[in-house]
Each structure stands twice: as C-alpha cells, then as structure tokens.
Amino acid sequence: MRLNSFISKLILIFVVLLLTYFYAQYEKKKYYSYGDNSSNELVLKKLPDFNSIEVVSGKKINSYELMKEGSGLFVHIWGTWCGPCEKEMPEFLKYAQSVESKGVKFLLVAVNDEEVKINKFMGRYSIPKNVIITVDSENKVMDLFGTLKVPESFLFDSTGKHINKFIGPQEWGQASYQTRLDFWLNLQNLVERKIETH
Fold first, then answer.
1. If residue 71 lies in a helix (H) or strand (E), which one and from where to where?
2. Which of 36, 130, 188, 196 fits 182 for a cystine, CB–CB 3.0-4.6 Å?
3. Rounded Cα distance, 117 and 136, in Å
4. DSSP 8-class letter at 134
5. Start-to-end CA span in the chain (Å)
C-alpha cells in the first residue's frame, strides 16, 4: 500500500514538473516573439511632426524645418536625471562633431527636465554647431516616438524617412558608427561591408 502511495506521489511530482516546464517554454516563446517583426521594418516610419519643441534659451522650432537643412537628422531623447545618458553624452557630442561636415544635424530632446538643469549639465561640454539642445516641456515627444526609456536615438534622412533606431546608450566612438552612417545616408557607395555584431 505504501509503495502505491509513493509511486502516485512520484507520478504527481513528475506531472507537475512536466507542466511547469511546458508552461515556461510557452511563456518564453511568447516573450521572445513579442514585437518580433519578420519583415524587419521599423515601427516608426517617418519623423513625427512636433512644432512646439523649445530650444534651450531660444525659440520654438519645427521638426520638419530642421530636417530639411541637412543630409540627415538624429533625434536623441535623453534627460539630465538619467545616469546612462550622462555617461554617453561626451562621446555622443564628439560623434556629432565628427559628422558635421556630412551635413548631419542633431536634435537633443531633454524629457521630464528643466532648462536650468539642462544648461548646468551641458555647460561642461563644447557643443558642436550641428547640435540643437531642446527641452520637451509638454512631455509629448516620448509618446510620439514610442520611447519607453532613455536614452534612445533615431536617425532620419533628409526626406524624414526613419532609417535606424538606437536603443540605450551606444559607444559612439567606434569607427563602425561612421561607416554605417555613410551607408545609411548613401554618402558612399559601399560594395563590401563587414557584418557587425554587438
């Protein structure tokens, strides 16, 4: 009788473990397939129209007017309160300066922030001519871009087409960012490229 009871408990434990395993596999598949886009297309197709963004210590600007002035536009969403943003900023500004001759503009949009804090933060750096620092006082840019956390950067071409998205802080000092920018903006006819993995 005890042997039957022991075998029943063993079978019950085995069934519970098996069900747990299959449930875990189901959840894993569901998680990793979330947001999976087999066509590999970006969700944001073009530059959102935001015309009430305020330049720090300046006037309001229109996103489309800025886009038409150069060969490409980076929109960098960040905040002075964000540790990874602070760490990334010096290298990001050097990158912006290094591609200035290619006509690429950079719009740095500070979210959930104050102009006083932004001025104090950016006062530590030399700001390249192709960089415009703005504050999103209405806190609507993150929603327009579908951004959940910062930093995030978006690259658009001169027609407003969304070319690429950079999630989280990047190592902008790597030479590959220069090569890829040339490719994305068609500034060079690159026949052979090495496949990059990060």
1. none
2. 188
3. 13
4. E
5. 60
Distant-in-sequence, close-in-space partners of 28: CB < 8 Å, separation ≥ 6: none
155: which DSSP letter? Answer: E
- Across-strand partners of 133? 108
pLDDT over 90 (residue 170): yes
Rounded to whole angstroms, how far apart are CA atoms 85 and 151?
Answer: 6
Q: Tokens at residue 44, please?
A: 């944001």
> Does 168 lie in the same domain as 79?
yes
List of residues 6+ apart from 173 with CB closer than 8 A: 91, 94, 95
Q: Which two tokens stand for residue 148?
A: 């959940």
Report the C-alpha gap between 108 and 90 in whole angstroms. Answer: 13
Euclidean distance between CA atoms 116 and 56, whole angstroms: 9
pLDDT digits over 54-90, tens only?
Answer: 677 666 666 667 766 778 999 999 999 999 999 999 9
For residue 191, being part of any structural domain is answered with no
Angle of CA points 162, 166, 167, to nearest 5°: 125
pTM: 0.71
Q: Do 87 and 8 reside in the same domain of the chain?
A: no
Separation of alpha carbons 197 and 176, rounded Å: 11
Bridge-based pairing of strands 162-167 and 104-111 is unpaired
Neighbours of 108 (CB within 10 A): 25
Query: Using one digit for the tens of pLDDT, what is the confidence trace for 120-144?
Result: 999 999 999 999 998 887 888 898 8
Domain containing residue 23: 1-36
